[in-house]
Design goal:
With 418 residues, the protein is α/β, with parallel strands linked by helices. 48% of the residues lie in helices and 14% in strands. Strands 1, 2, 3, 4, 5, 6, 7, 8, 9, 10, 11 and 12 form a 12-stranded mixed beta sheet that branches. Helix 5 links the parallel strand 6 and strand 7.
C-alpha cells in the first residue's frame, strides 16, 4: 500500500497545477533548487524582498501556503502572510517607486489568494505593481498575478491552470502499525466528512470546489477587465498556455525576460525620481501663490463688469467656478435673456389667444381730424351724436350748413338773459 502523503493534509483545497499536487514530496528538491538569488540588496525589515534602483522585487516561488510554517520552510515556497508583510514594507519605503512580483509557482492553497489578490490590487493604487513570469504562474499564483497592473511572461513560461482541486484520503486497510481509523460523524453534520466513494459524497465535494472556482474566475475577470465567460472559454479551461498564446488571449500583457522587465521599470522610475528632485523653493511657492491670487482677483473683476441686473444667481455661480471667465458668463447671460424674451413672446401669444372675439356688426371708426374739412367734421358729429340728429329732426344738410356757419363765425348763440 502506498504510504499516505502527510503534506497533503495541511490544506483541504488547492489551486495548484495537478502534476505538482500529485508529486509534492518529489518536488521538494526541485523547488528549493529553483529559487533564484539576485544581486539586489535585501529590503530592510522584509523576509524575501530585494531592491534594485527603486524597484522592490518580491519573489513568489514554489507552493503557496496560507502561513509560514515547517511546510513552507521545507518546500521553499511562499506563504501569504509573509508576502502581505513584504508588500506593505515595500509600500512604506519612500525610496521604492515600483514593485515587481517575480513569479515561479505551480499554485497552492485555494483559500487565501482572494484576500491576497485584493491587497495587491490596493497596492497598485499607491505604487506601480507588475508581475513577471519566468517559468510557471499557475492556479493560485495566477490569481495573484492577475491583480497586478501588468503581466510580462517569458516566451516559454506557462500560465493558467485556473481551477480548484481537492484530495480526500480514505483508509481501506490497516496502517503500518496494524491500526485502521474509523470516522463517525454526528447526526446533523452528514456533509462534514463526505465519502468520495459515493455519488452523494462526490457531489458535495464538487459543489464546494465549484464555488471556489467561481470566485477564482470572477476575480481574474475583474482584475483583467474581461467577462467571466471569456475567462472560462479562453484561459485554458483548467489547462495552461505558453507565453505567446497567453498574451494573445489576454492572460498576459507582453512577452519579455526578467532583466528587460526590470530595466523597463527602472527606466520609468528615473523619470519619476527626476521630477522628485526638481523641488521648488519657498520663494517660488510664494510667487506662484501671489500670481494665482492676482489672476483670481482679475477674473472676479471681469465677471463684475459683464454682470447684468437680474442675473445675480449666474454671477454668484461664476465666482464660485474657477473655470468661469467673463466671456463665458456673458454668453450665459445672453442665453438667459434670450430665454426670457422667448417666454415673454409666448405669454403674449397666449394672452392674444384668450382675447374675446369682436362682433362684426360693431363698426369701429378711428377718426383722424388732422387736415379734415369742416364738412367732414360736421358729418362726424352727425354720425356720432344722436342728440344732434334729434335736434335737427334728421335734416343732415341743415346741420352741416349750421356747423360750417358756426365755425366761420356767422352764427352767434345767445344765452338766456342776454
Amino acid at each position: 500500500m502506498k504510504k499516505r502523503n502527510d503534506l497533503q493534509i495541511i490544506a483541504k483545497h488547492w489551486a495548484i497545477e495537478p502534476q505538482t499536487f500529485q508529486n509534492m514530496d518529489a518536488n521538494i528538491r526541485e523547488l528549493q533548487s529553483g529559487l533564484s538569488l539576485f544581486s539586489q540588496k535585501p529590503l530592510e525589515h522584509s523576509f524575501t524582498t530585494t531592491i534594485r534602483d527603486g524597484v522592490a522585487v518580491i519573489p513568489i516561488k514554489g507552493i503557496i501556503t496560507a502561513r509560514f510554517d515547517l511546510f513552507t520552510l521545507l518546500m521553499g515556497g511562499t506563504s501569504l502572510d509573509v508576502l502581505a508583510r513584504d508588500i506593505q514594507t515595500a509600500l512604506d519605503d519612500k525610496s521604492i517607486h515600483s514593485i515587481l512580483l517575480d513569479i515561479d509557482s505551480p499554485g497552492g492553497v485555494a483559500v487565501g489568494p482572494s484576500e491576497m489578490a485584493a491587497i495587491i490590487r490596493q497596492a497598485c493604487e499607491c505604487k506601480k505593481v507588475w508581475a513577471y513570469v519566468g517559468r510557471n504562474c499557475c492556479s493560485a499564483a495566477y490569481w495573484l498575478a492577475s491583480a497586478t497592473k501588468r503581466i510580462v511572461a517569458q516566451r516559454t513560461a506557462l500560465l493558467g491552470s485556473i481551477g480548484v482541486v481537492s484530495t480526500v484520503s480514505v483508509q481501506e486497510q490497516p496502517d503500518a502499525d496494524g491500526y485502521k481509523n474509523i470516522e463517525i460523524v454526528s447526526t446533523n453534520a452528514k456533509k462534514k466528512r463526505p465519502d468520495p466513494r459515493t455519488a452523494e459524497g462526490v457531489e458535495t465535494i464538487r459543489a464546494e470546489l465549484d464555488d471556489l472556482e467561481s470566485e477564482f474566475i470572477d476575480a481574474v475577470a475583474k482584475y483583467r477587465g474581461l467577462a467571466p465567460e471569456t475567462v472560462k472559454k479562453d484561459f485554458g479551461q483548467g489547462g495552461v498556455l505558453m507565453g505567446p498564446a497567453a498574451v494573445n488571449v489576454g492572460m498576459a500583457d507582453a512577452l519579455g525576460d526578467y532583466e528587460s522587465t526590470l530595466a523597463e521599470l527602472i527606466e520609468q522610475n528615473k523619470g519619476v525620481q527626476k521630477m522628485d528632485k526638481q523641488a521648488i523653493t519657498q520663494e517660488q511657492i510664494d510667487a506662484y501663490r501671489s500670481e494665482g491670487a492676482a489672476a483670481e482677483r482679475a477674473r472676479l473683476l471681469a465677471l463684475e463688469e459683464v454682470a447684468v441686473a437680474g442675473h445675480e444667481d449666474l454671477l454668484a455661480k461664476a465666482k464660485a467656478d474657477p473655470e468661469m471667465t467673463a466671456e463665458k458668463l456673458a454668453l450665459e447671460i445672453v442665453k438667459a435673456e434670450k430665454a426670457k424674451g422667448n417666454d415673454y413672446l409666448a405669454s403674449l401669444k397666449k394672452a392674444e389667444e384668450n382675447l374675446p372675439e369682436i362682433s362684426p356688426s360693431a363698426k369701429v371708426v378711428a377718426p383722424s381730424f388732422v387736415g379734415a374739412t369742416a364738412t367732414e367734421r360736421a358729418e362726424h358729429e352727425w354720425n356720432t351724436k344722436a342728440e344732434i340728429r334729434k335736434e335737427f329732426d334728421g335734416d343732415k344738410e341743415a346741420f352741416v350748413a349750421y356747423f360750417i356757419a358756426q365755425e366761420n363765425g356767422q352764427i352767434k348763440i345767445q344765452n338766456k338773459g342776454e
